[in-house]
Specification:
16 helices; binds nicotinamide-adenine-dinucleotide; 22 strands; single chain; 478 residues
């Protein structure tokens, strides 16, 4: 058994791999084969207590480290991380089905990106500012609890751990029980980089047990959560009694407003691509594609060709194909949503229910395109989290903006077309991020949403500030 396989059955607390106090073993299922990919321990509230105690102790010294010491530590983590890229990719391919080529580039790269963006932000960060008669200083918050999902697992871990370390906090991470292997390797990387004992702690487990214990823990000053809006609400409720800071990165149902005069062959591929990347399992996937009614046929042609040309296949194989969705529950949910669109009268342009022709097992979804989708349909309202695009029509740009904003979510939006015209549309969109002719924000942009998509921002300078307290000192010389 490799070290990583052994460590999957343990927690990392106080700089050591330790057995859980009462945890049970759980098989993680490979979504391509429906067989066990790995075995992880599901920890307990007692494990969280131990991790918080270690983090509190470590905070006494780590919170006092200098910018230079933290920069050196973050730099060493990046170096160690680069050595484990292949292991990380293999683990994610087996546990959540991201094809190994894509996992090794985009998924692993996103984790490094989180660290590099934080390093840049920390280099120039003003820890002290003068505001009138008040000196305002930024300080670490204390022990931060972190709960992360499986879809871009390293990205989510890095966007929390890097700024928490940069700010001088200590932490307890609970990764997704659907995809825990990369978090174990990540802890091994931090250990190899010399992160002091207790600064970073990893407790494996499920949401209702370990996630809830983190959210409610009186020794944790902040909980940073990424996942579904459903679980994010439960985290906030559990956190309320201890008045800890709650940072939420939640679900989305992002629109893509295609401007009436846009060159469709040029603007659709780079924006609609976001519905296929990672098998559609991105919180910012721009799935509601809004096209002018006179351009609908043309848009359907371009989008259908993209989806028909997308290969679905084994995540263990190198290549540009997409893999399965993460698990059986997601597979069944997506099948149900596809069927609901058919039942509610949308036009199925390609794809549909059932397995793609080239596979006979696994949680693979046919790349699917619907046109004639109206805002009242379930497929237009609910987050699908699969390779399913919906094409909706508008008559005027005002109507397009109304449809785009007609969602409980507000994470991200896309505008496809002339950037100067897109600049006039962007302020009207109720979303934390607007990308023009791309499906995601640019490097270093604050990442986060409006409305039911969350609170707070991650990445770069804004992410760093979100992991800090603000202290006002008045009555001293400026
Ligand atoms: N806004 C963003 O930045 C962002 C990024 C990635 C994913 N997401 C969202 O994440 C969701 C997909 O991820 P998922 O299926 O892993 O989400 P999920 O909410 O089921 O799980 C996320 C994490 O929360 C934990 N959890 C579940 N119930 C909990 C509870 N009661 N208390 C505490 N923790 C609990 C899980 O164990 C897991 O670690 C999608 O909705 C997606 O849009 C958002």
């Amino acid at each position: 058994m490799s070290d990583t396989e052994t460590h999957l059955k343990q927690n990392y607390i106080g700089g050591k791999w330790v057995d859980s106090k009462g945890g049970k073993l759980h098989d993680v299922i490979n979504p391509a084969t429906e067989e066990a990919a790995s075995t992880v321990v599901l920890g307990t509230a007692a494990d969280v207590d131990d991790a918080v105690a270690a983090a509190k102790e470590a905070y006494k010294t780590y919170s006092q480290t200098t910018r230079e010491e933290r920069l050196a530590l973050l730099g060493r983590i990046v170096e160690e991380y680069k050595k484990r890229g292949a292991d990380l990719a293999k683990s994610m391919a087996a546990e959540m089905g991201a094809p190994v080529s894509f996992a090794g580039t985009a998924q692993v790269g996103a984790g490094i990106g989180g660290f590099l963006g934080t390093i840049e932000a920390l280099k120039n960060f003003e820890f002290s500012e003068q505001h009138g008669a008040n000196k305002v200083v930024y300080e670490p918050i204390g022990v931060v609890g972190m709960i992360t999902p499986w879809n871009w697992p390293l990205n989510q871990i890095a966007l929390k751990v890097a700024p928490a370390l940069a700010a001088g906090n200590t932490m307890v991470l609970k990764p997704s029980e659907e995809c825990p292997g990369n978090a174990v390797i990540f802890a091994e990387i931090l250990d190899a980089a010399g992160v002091p004992p207790g600064v970073f702690n990893l407790v494996q487990g499920d949401g209702p047990t370990v996630g809830n214990a983190i959210s409610a823990h009186p020794g944790i000053e902040m909980v940073s959560f990424t996942g579904s809006t459903r679980a994010g609400i439960l985290v906030a409720k559990a956190a309320a009694d201890t008045v800890k800071r709650v940072h939420q990165e939640l679900g989305g149902k992002s629109p893509n407003i295609v401007l009436p005069d846009a060159d469709l062959a040029q603007v659709l591929p780079p924006t609609v691509q976001g519905v296929l990347v990672n098998t559609g399992q991105s919180c910012i996937a721009p799935t509601r594609i809004l096209v002018h009614k006179d351009r609908k046929e043309e848009a359907v042609g371009v989008i259908k060709a993209m989806f028909d040309g997308t290969q679905v296949g084994d995540p263990a194989q190198e290549g540009g194909h997409i893999g399965p969705v993460v698990n059986k529950a997601q597979f069944e949910k997506i099948q149900g949503l596809i069927q609901s669109a058919i039942d509610e009268g949308a036009t199925l342009e390609t794809g549909g229910t059932g397995l793609p022709a080239n596979v006979n097992r696994g949680y693979f979804i046919k790349p699917t395109v619907f046109s004639g989708v109206t805002p009242d349909m379930r497929i237009a309202k609910e987050e699908v989290f699969g390779p399913v695009a919906t094409i909706m029509e508008y008559s005027s740009l005002d109507e397009a903006v109304d449809i785009a904003n007609d969602t409980e979510y507000g994470l991200s939006a896309v505008v496809s077309g002339d950037p100067s015209k897109a600049a006039e549309v962007a302020p009207k969109l109720r979303a934390g991020m607007v990308a023009v002719n791309a499906w995601g924000p640019g490097p270093g942009a604050p990442f986060g949403g409006y409305k039911a998509s969350g609170n707070g921002r991650e990445g770069g300078l804004f992410g760093l500030k979100d992991f800090m307290e603000v202290k006002a000192i008045s009555g001293i010389p400026a």
